[in-house]
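Researcher: Please translate sequence to structure tokens.
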Amino acid sequence: MGGLTAHRGWKRRRVMDKKCRVIDHLSEQDSLFSASDYDGPKAPSVEEKVATLVYRRDRLIKGLQRLLRDAERTEV
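Model: Translation complete:
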């Protein structure tokens, strides 16, 4: 019986590790629009900024959906 409980705990820790990795990845992406990007002639256009934000939003949604599926699977 102890083995089953330990296994479930391992799955929960694995899901939490995935959540932490997603959060770390997103915090790294926050440097995408730093202040220096807007200073020179190479400043991104409005279209580039919007496209990047839409891409990041879609990636975030996919990541959260994956985490939700993993969490639902481990709750069983």
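Researcher: Any highlights?
Model: The first helix runs from residue 2 to 29.
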